[in-house]
Amino acid sequence: MLKLHLKSTAIAEPLAIDKNLILVVTTNAHYNRPSRASAALLIDQYGPEIDTGGFGVVLVRHPHQPEHGVERILNIGEAFDFLADGDVVRVMPDRTVSVIYRLNASINSLLVTERCNSFCVMCSQPPRDIDDSYLIDQWMRAIPLFSRSTREIGITGGEPTLLGAQLIRLLRQLKAYLPDTAVHMLSNGRNFKDIDVAKRLAAVRHPDIMLGVPLYSDIASIHDFVVQADGAFDETIRGLLNLRRCSISIELRVVIHRVTYERLPALARFIVRNLQFVDKVALMGLEITGFTKANLGELWIDPVEYQSQLKEAVAVLARGRVTASIYNHQLCVLDKTLWPIAVKSISDWKNVYMPECAGCSVMSRCGGFFSSAHIKRSQHILPIDVSAAHKH
Description:
Layout: E1 5-7, E2 9-10, E3 21-26, E4 39-43, E5 57-60, E6 73-75, E7 88-91, E8 96-101, E9 108-111, H1 134-142, E10 152-156, H2 165-177, E11 182-186, H3 195-203, E12 209-214, H4 220-227, H5 232-245, E13 249-255, H6 264-274, E14 280-284, H7 291-294, H8 296-299, H9 307-319, E15 324-327, E16 351-352, E17 369-370, H10 386-389
Parallel strand pairs: 3-4, 4-5, 5-6, 9-10, 10-11, 11-12, 12-13, 13-14, 14-15
Antiparallel strand pairs: 1-8, 2-6, 3-7, 7-8, 16-17
């Protein structure tokens, strides 16, 4: 698990900024001077021989008290030992430093709003009714600093479609600066019930965008209960059909818990019969954070207990030629026949392995755990050795 935020200490004058800085990290003390204002110089130790002039800030891992009058030097210690050239940081006036983009991450996600029109019982990012329009401005400033070699960018919320024209503005920025980077946007799909919303998204003509849309049951009342919004099922289905009409790629997402697991096979049949056009289906384990923690007693079921339903659902999807993947599960709790479609899907900054995993020969293939799994996890976690792996 990586720490992405810290409150640094100023080791010279107070940090003289009145707004957030968005800066690309460089270890090159000879960085092009005209570009230094948009860069953060990362050094192990400060010395008067280092020309720090013009940089947005200087981040020091092993600080040495500089001479009086040297500004914008921050002590970050070794907490950001992963920080490297090409990463992007946000520095706030209160000296909080956040890593908002990592060049070597498998995927970087942009939180674009905390507002949402759903209130899902297992939401990992509980919605807040606040004005967070500053987030789009932040990303509009940051995207030009991202490497064009970035493989994939995620967009998440809250519900991104609530941003309206601002979301389209963001997508156009991504297309302009990162034309070869895939975009995966999470949306509950409900606002796409209006065909014009889908058309505006399609009009961006992004070359590689996919929407991750949740569908929790084939029965409207169960889906609406999970989403905590009456009519959400009908809105989502209409939204999916409109996205298809606009040729936008779709990943259906099914979070498995005590409310949803029993009807997994029936949901798979519903998808095959009515939504076969989706590009893939992701069958997902719980993240024990946000509303899940508050509702854990009603939601938790050990993954071992729903293996028969999961196997049947996967088989139904396979027969219907719908691609399926399993996210957020450990190999030792999955039936061996499901291993080939189990994906390492947890973001690396919150991906951990537990003490029970010590000595496991398939750990490199295993999806591991969310860092919040210390609260609750399967009672069947165990290391697998080579011989056992063939028998599981």
